[in-house]
Amino acid sequence: MTGPRQRLRLTFARDAPVRYITHLDVMRMWERVLKRAALPLAYSEGFTPRPRIALAAPLAVGMTSECELIEVITEEHVPLDRVRDGVPGELPAGFRLLDVAEVAAGLPSLQSMVRAATYEVDLPDARDAAAWSAAIAEFLARESIPWEHMRGDEVRRYDLRPLVRGVALVQAAPPGDEHPSARLALDLRNDSTGTGRPEQVARALGVDGPPTRVHRTRLELHEPEIPALLGGEG
After folding, report:
1. Contact status, residue 54 vs residue 70, Cβ threshold 8 Å
2. DSSP state, 51?
3. Could you tell me the residue ranges of all domains in the chain?
4. 32 CB contacts (<8 Å, ≥6 apart)?
5. What distance in Å separates the CA atoms of residue 67 and residue 184, rounded to the nearest whole number?
6. What angle do CA 150, 156, 158 make, to 5 degrees?
7. Which CATH class, in words, describes the domain spanning 6-103?
8. Of 3.30.70, 1.25.40, 3.30.1460, 3.30.420, which CATH number belongs to 113-220?
């Protein structure tokens, strides 16, 4: 079936075996997968046309996720079942397709709609639940948390507090554990004005050492209301 260009949004997971793959390699992987799945991809114009695909809030190297989003523009209408059936078999081990949906072509770019991300973070910390509750309450009560970190040769200085929307203890380390580990749930801003980073929040909460696991559980989008899709599929 031919027709006007279509905008598809795919949700996928990145599991532990592929947590060290770079953003550029993920984009190249998706180009190969979509071509092998024989989807009629739309291409950019110019001397070096590229498939019109866009990834939301690229995941940092070393993290896993159950909520990665990529949008694909096709030259013609594609039944969603064709994507659901064709893509999974082309994905490398460690990537899983979770959902496929058609979205309105008139929406802003995928990246510009991202507002926040939530994470589960495992930390090398022996504090009990009461100590964690006190530390989290003190952190959230602060109006400002001056912060700095190196980016290349440049020192960046900013306020960490506005980048943190929420912190909750999921599980404290069991008493007497030889390798204590606590788990937090973090709700962090992720937009054009700033991005909260789990490892920085952990340091601000007094954790010695980097997280042992960071798993993204949700990306929050702000999608403006536009006229309903015509002829869309579920």
Report:
1. yes
2. B
3. 6-103, 113-220
4. 90
5. 18
6. 135
7. alpha beta
8. 3.30.70
The structure's pTM equals 0.91
Task: Encode 130-163 in three state secondary structure.
Answer: HHHHHHHHHHHHCCCCEEEEEECCEEEEEECHHH
Can you say how many angstroms the Cα of residue 89 is from the centroid of all Cα atoms in its chain?
23
Tell me the one-letter amino acid at 231: G
Tens digit of each residue's pLDDT, the chain (234 residues): 445 689 999 999 999 999 999 999 999 999 999 999 999 999 998 888 999 999 999 999 999 999 999 999 999 999 999 999 999 999 999 999 999 999 999 999 999 999 999 999 999 999 999 999 999 999 999 999 999 887 788 888 999 999 999 999 999 999 888 899 999 999 999 999 899 999 999 999 999 999 999 999 999 999 998 765 444 444
Intrachain domains 6-103 and 113-220 with the same fold: yes
Q: How far is CA 230 from the centre of its chain?
A: 29
Burial (CB count <10 Å: 0-12, 13-18, 19+), residue 96: middle
Lookup: tokens for 70: 């990529």
CA–CA–CA angle 1, 92, 71 (5° rounding) = 45
Distance CA 63, CA 216 (A): 7
Residue 3 has a pLDDT of 55
